[in-house]
Design goal:
One of its GO terms (molecular function) is symporter activity. This protein is mainly alpha-helical. The chain has a single domain, classed as Growth Hormone, Chain: A. It is elongated. The N terminus is likely disordered.
């Protein structure tokens, strides 16, 4: 049984109404946030040849962008709690537009790192955290479904961005493609406009800023006293380390196996197409009365399935088998990302979630930063992609098994602690009752003694 804290927000979330328009906005915002670092891999070969970069150097582009997106979590959470989601998402969209347009004039890999990686990643951080936070304000009973629909933005956008980027690359080169992609990312500003604030009294959220502008702790380190949070964080970091390198290098791996360039790019679209249906479907399953109390175990299974797909990939050489891998990859990846933030909400509750997600994302930026370049380094050293997939798959499977075992132990310990607490409380009540009885008996005895004296 999941030990989620009570969601005492001080008001009842709408669980519908304008909330579904907010989900549409979050779908767009999260779609760009997660799909852009993956879809940019279509340009990597051309950028690599023009700027003379190695595999590990080119992998740093997506890695820095994702790391900046995650590292910006606490700042984004603080800004959202101070100003609300709407202006922050609009600001994030403008930053993404500026980063892509400026990067199109780049003449060195360091220039690309800074503008696409750092500036673009910070813009994506504003989009991601603001979207996740406002969903937790609008939904409670239907929250897993709302999260699943919003997180489905990533595969939906990846599904059309991958072939679109390949088309733009052929027509305009990577520089012209970045200009057009920057214009497309202005749609995040439209998404932000849909995020109408919730007009309800909210309690101050620790670890960020209160609505009246009063500052509290920037990072709430008290989360590290929560055993469930620590378990979630360790397992999640293991997943993040191995999650993105297979996506970044999948088109290049397919081309290396003799697959035509457009067909290689479409592997990402196939993965995204499957993923877009899996995420809301997973949200529906997670919302059921059988799965929701056991959602942490469901998350563990999704991670193990995802990692197993990568371990099998080096055995697949033909285009047909790589399509099958892309389908299974889409299933596993979609399941994990439909649950990844819902599990954190389940552990921390709606009230503490904005601070918790900020702390989680800034810690996750380190495995995010190191994962793809480490995988690229393996390709540089061995000249073979199979070691990349084996490393990523092993780390993810180990993370899933860790979550399963440790959550089982944690729930057992929580049950024992609850039993001991109930027993202690019962003993205290019994002692209080005995003391009360003794006091009453003493008072009665004193009354009888007084009566006897009066009779004498």
């Amino acid at each position: 049984m999941s030990p989620a804290p009570a969601d005492e927000l001080g008001y009842k979330p709408l669980d519908g109404g304008w909330g579904w328009m907010v989900v549409v906005g979050a779908h767009i915002s999260i779609g760009f946030a997660y799909s852009t670092p993956k879809a940019l891999s279509i340009f990597f070969k051309e950028i690599q040849e023009e700027l003379g970069a190695s595999y590990s150097e080119i992998a740093w582009i997506s890695s820095i962008m994702l790391a900046a997106m995650y590292a910006g979590g606490p700042v984004s959470s603080a800004l959202v709690n101070r100003f609300g989601s709407r202006p922050i998402v609009i600001l994030g969209g403008l930053m993404c537009w500026a980063s892509m347009v400026t990067a199109s004039f780049g003449t060195s890999i360091i220039y690309i790192y800074f503008f696409i990686g750092v500036i673009g990643g910070c813009g994506l951080a504003l989009n991601l955290n603001a979207s996740l936070t406002i969903i937790s304000k609008y939904f409670l009973a239907k929250r897993p479904l709302a999260n699943g629909l919003a997180m489905a933005g990533s595969p939906v956008f990846l599904c059309f961005l991958a072939p679109l980027n390949q088309y733009l690359l052929d027509k305009f080169g990577w520089r012209g493609s970045l200009l057009i992609l920057g214009g497309l990312m202005l749609n995040c500003c439209v998404a932000g406009a849909l995020m109408r604030p919730v007009n309800a009294p909210c309690k101050p959220i620790s670890g960020a800023y209160t609505e009246d502008g009063g500052g509290t702790k920037f990072l709430d380190l008290t989360f590290f006293k929560d055993r469930g949070f620590i378990i979630y964080l360790i397992g999640n970091m293991m997943f993040i380390f191995g999650a993105y390198a297979p996506i970044v290098f999948l088109p290049a791996y397919a081309i290396d196996q003799g697959v035509e360039e457009y067909a290689a790019a479409y592997l990402l679209s196939i993965m995204g197409f499957v993923d877009m249906f899996i995420r809301p479907g997973t949200g529906l399953v997670a919302n059921s009365k059988w799965i929701r109390p056991r959602i942490q175990y469901f998350f563990s299974f999704a991670m193990i399935f995802n990692g197993t797909c990568h371990l099998v990939c080096p055995l697949l050489k033909s285009h047909a088998l790589l399509v099958a891998y892309a389908v299974c990859f889409g299933i596993g990846f979609g399941m994990v990302f439909a649950l990844i933030f819902e599990c954190l909400m389940d552990l921390m509750g709606n009230e503490r979630f904005p601070s918790a997600v900020g702390l989680v994302t800034i810690i996750e930026c380190f495995p995010m930063l190191l994962g793809p370049p480490t995988a690229g380094l393996l390709v540089d050293i061995y000249g073979d992609y199979k070691y990349l997939f084996m490393m990523c798959g092993s780390v993810i499977v180990a993370g899933g098994l860790f979550l399963f075992v440790m959550n089982t132990c944690n729930y057992h310990m929580l049950e024992k602690e609850k039993t001991a607490k109930d027993r202690h409380q019962h003993q205290d009540n019994q002692d209080n009752q005995d003391n009360q009885d003794n006091q009453e008996n003493q008072e009665n005895q004193e009354n009888r003694d007084q009566v006897s004296i009066l009779e004498l």
